[in-house]
Write a structure and sequence with these properties.
By secondary structure, the chain is an alpha/beta fold. The protein contains 17 helices and twelve strands.
Length: 472
Amino acid sequence: MRTHVKSSAGTGSSADPARTLALTLLCRAESENRPLDELIGELAVETAGDIDADPARDLDGRDLRFVRQLVAGVTKWRLHIDWILRPHSKRPLPELTATVRHALRLAVFQMRWLDRVPARAAVHSAVELTKCFEHRGAASYANAVLRNLTRADEPIAYPDRETNLAHHLSVVHSHPRWLVERWLSRWELPQTEALLRANNEHPLLYARRNPLRAGHDEFLRNLPAGAHPRQVDETTYEVSAPEGFFQSPAFVKGQAYVQDVAASEPVRMLAPAIGERCLDLCAAPGGKAIQAAIAGKDEIELIAVDRSPQRLRLLRQSTQRLGLSSIRCVASDGDEIPLGQRTGFDRVLVDAPCSGTGVFRRHPDARWNKRAEDLPRHAKRQLQLLHSGFRHLRVGGVLVYSTCSLEMEENDQVVESFLAQQPDARLDEDTSDRPPRFQSVPGRDEGDGSFAVRLKKVADHGEEPQIPREAV
């Protein structure tokens, strides 16, 4: 689907293409109720092909990065931006058209968070954008709101920190209040505030070197000039300046793949070895399956299962680029896996779908789509997947359950319920030199939020556990 935008020709508008495209993406994300990742992913495809009449046609790489910065920034800081705008708009923001509302948000984001954009330029661009899509009265209204804002002498009156801490943090750090309250009840204030700040930072790019294709020195030579890599461990590097990374020989020749430093821990705990049979139950888009295959020197048998054929296609493309032959992709929902007699796996990874509260900085719209009432539903499905993965594990085999959630309901409580229902399972403290439980929290630890627990199958009584309703 193309990102069509009404042309400004003949409207008297001088809206620039980058901001026009950013406004269009924001409006589409709202009207179509689609994740920003999908829309931006489509943008990347469109700019590589024939995009006649598309505003992205004349944008270079620098402009497209600016578009992504605008879209992600406005989405991430939406609550804070609306708090700033509200006193200066005579009409409630939800009553404005999506075009006017997002044009105003774009202006405030640029004025407050982008030092290189002067306030007058941000105001002018918002007015021109509104002219491009709306009648002149709407443009005049946008101009009046922003002029009122720029002329305001009083400092912004945020919710009082002393009397309403959760509300204050929610607005200042632009997070849903219910999440802030949850995290304050779990962690001390400094850690909670560090987490909120970390969620608003630009996500780092971590490249994992494929040692089957390149050593350390060759990998560094093939990175783009000015990448400034910081080595985190033997095969992981933070690419401080990622421009050009995906076009570099290091990536194109299969010498590296992208994986957050914390996301690599579950496979490290799994510790697959040469000759073993492994099952990745929720595999796509495939970073952990790739990591496991490389850990086994590509001399393992790895079945990568996912319900999405489209996402498995991405994994197949990655295995071809990286030169891996040990991964077999199977489309399945994880409950009934068409493996024939191929059971009794040595290692099973259940990287379960979850709320994703540990990866908010990578998905700027995700925080606004979460609900507390979703957590029990996630936990029920996670427990089902954990039982399904355990059925395919041989006696003495190792299973790692992992999520990218920070929430107890999806992590320790799921594992506790599973252990209470499955007498053949034990916490595995012997297989690896790594502890059997791992959790990282943004702002406290490097990388994203990640959780993992390693379990062992000590017997097989062949009985299907009865899962009580109240347990999930």
